[in-house]
Amino acid sequence: MKERLIRLEVFRYNPDTDTEGHYQHYEVSCLEEWVVLDALNKVKETLDPTLNFRWSCHMAVCGSCGMMINGEPRLACHTFLRNYPGTIRVEPLVHFPVERDLVTAPDDFMEKLKRVKPWIIRKDKQPIEQGEYRQTPKELLRFRQYAMCINCTLCYAACPEYGLTRHFIGPAALALAHRYNQDSRDQGRDERQEVVATKEGVWECTFVGACSEVCPVHVDPASALQQMKIASSFDWIKEHLLPGGGK
Amino acid sequence: MAKSNKPVVWFPFAAGGTVIAFFIPVIALLTLLVAFGKVPAGLSYESMHSWLADCVLAKLAVFGILALSLWSSAHRLRCTCFDFGLRIDTLVAAVLYSAAIVASLAAAMFLFRL
Description:
Chain A is an alpha+beta fold. Chain A has helices at 36-47, 107-115, 137-141, 144-147, 154-158, 160-164, 171-181, 189-196, 210-214, 221-241, and strands at 3-12, 22-31, 66-69, 72-75, 88-91, 98-100, 103-104. Chain A has 2 domains: 3-104, Beta-grasp domain (Ubiquitin-like (UB roll)); 107-246, Orthogonal Bundle (Fumarate Reductase Iron-sulfur Protein, Chain B, domain 2). Chain A is built from 10 helices and 7 strands. The longest helix of chain A is centred in the last third of the chain and has 21 residues, at 221-241. Chain A starts with a strand and ends in a 6-residue tail after the last helix. By secondary structure, chain B is an all-alpha fold. Chain B has one domain (9-113): 3 helical TM bundles of succinate and fumarate reductases (Up-down Bundle). Helix content of chain B is 81%, strand content 0%. Chain B contains 4 helices and no strands. At the A-B interface, helix 6, helix 8 and helix 10 of A face helix 1 and helix 3 of B.
């Protein structure tokens, strides 16, 4: 197996001692088939144990190792060194406050996620003896793609709108709202519309589409938002132009 | 927070986007055909002009295509201005939508004078 000397340019920030961040260079020998996360782990193990970053699964499932790699939001465990011939610049995800080195605080996303109620809401709950809510494969396909989200927040780092307008609910949370709206077992769309159809919801999106490009698990949040814009527009017509609010 | 009234401007934008997606390739193809001097007789300027002059439905269709495309372009440009950090959205929106409306009215006047 081929080894290569990898040069990393890593953003460092210690809130206890630093007033602002700076970049530190590391050179570390890595196998060509390693990912950026392996290189960071080798730096931490052999060169600098003070370097901080989040990671857990190493297989693009947990969504913890999101960072800017050469300026693009990516999962470090999903980014192969062989695709980066020169120095690799590693920075914390943009649009989120930096806690320390490559660790960011996702609190804003977590708060917005709760606001869209990403769980199944039932108006009429059937007793457990009546069994489960059954669903056909076709009904499952309507939302399955959006259920693949791993909450890595790469789409928030990619979204210029979220960067400019922090009250925007943002791609992942809205795509998850769409996921539950599309679920045949769910009856909570009206409740979610109170957030989705506001200015902070889908209407802040200008359809740049970067969210869908960076998603490591091929969710397409941009399509979810467009579909919700169309549905919300029909709601608006019903509410404002039809007699009795279309009810 | 109240639901947004954005559908008022977004719906014609979306309709215009669809219209543009369908008709721009046709316009590009026609332009290429003109450039190579290979315009089919039915699509020549003169025959299209006389067809438009005679048929009210054709005028309405062309007006629809133009007005929706103009609105869509105005809205897209408004979003682009915002994305580029121009934080005077109300003014930008007023100028661009007014331009789209004025140009649509001008197109209507031209079409119905034919």
